[in-house]
Amino acid sequence: MKCDMHNHSIFSDGTFTPEKLVEIARESNLSAIALTDHNTILGLDRFLNAPNSSNIHLVGGIEFSTDYKGIELHILGLFIPKEFYSEIEEKVKNELKKKEQSNINLVNNLIKKGFDLTYEDIKNTTPNGNINRAVIANYMMHKGYVESVSEAFEKYLNPSNGLYTPPEKLSALDTIEYINSIGAVSVLAHPFLNLKTEDKIREFLTVAKEKGLDGMEVYYSKFSEEQTAITEKLADEFNLIKSGGSDFHGENKPEIKMGTGKCNLNIPYSVYENLKRRFSEKNK
């Protein structure tokens, strides 16, 4: 029995509907999956009520984009109680406006640099008009401006290149406290993607644990064996639940498959059980 606690739908930057995610989970022989769209819970009702003949355990979640000392960190909230949906959507509304404006500014800067593209054309490539830098990178690749998404980020979409200015974000530590306040489970997503080194991850975990951080992704599509081993060690050191997810986006990241990532994942069902147990403990 396997699970996948990090997936995206058309309600953020994935290419499949919430219902299709459940279907893919069944085809992939998964026993539990979470929907964790970026800064929105608008797909959760459809996800949790999707046809589910295999009785897969469905976890309603969200992936908050947050800031810690100028570093963008992603914090997952899992097992989001339905009574807080409206409150969460209101909480992230301003953040989404800031994000859209930063993406508009990025596209305008790319146009000034000579690229033949428009914001509307990029929006039209997505099911719900949701855009982030990965979508922009995909569009640039399909237009032939770059050979890969990673090349687009390296040459144009990284803040260090001067074309993209990240929007102001929620505080990572405040977000962890908020997730705990509503009885949900907080998980640090893909720590090596943002914090880069073991020392920086340890520094963050030291303060995040005091704020009530519940878990950390140790099984992740883009982690090396060494990075997985380090995060497992750190999870034990800080008494955190070991979580894991593919970060499945569908056709926007075709190399990543639900449940198996880049054929390097095998997330045990016990990950779901441990997260669910923490949720139950919080809501006795």
TrEMBL record:
<feature type="domain" description="Polymerase/histidinol phosphatase N-terminal">
    <location>
        <begin position="3"/>
        <end position="68"/>
    </location>
</feature>
<dbReference type="GO" id="GO:0035312">
    <property type="term" value="F:5'-3' DNA exonuclease activity"/>
</dbReference>
<dbReference type="InterPro" id="IPR052018">
    <property type="entry name" value="PHP_domain"/>
</dbReference>
<dbReference type="InterPro" id="IPR003141">
    <property type="entry name" value="Pol/His_phosphatase_N"/>
</dbReference>
<dbReference type="InterPro" id="IPR004013">
    <property type="entry name" value="PHP_dom"/>
</dbReference>
<dbReference type="GO" id="GO:0004534">
    <property type="term" value="F:5'-3' RNA exonuclease activity"/>
</dbReference>
<dbReference type="InterPro" id="IPR016195">
    <property type="entry name" value="Pol/histidinol_Pase-like"/>
</dbReference>
<dbReference type="Pfam" id="PF02811">
    <property type="entry name" value="PHP"/>
</dbReference>
<protein>
    <submittedName>
        <fullName>PHP domain-containing protein</fullName>
    </submittedName>
</protein>
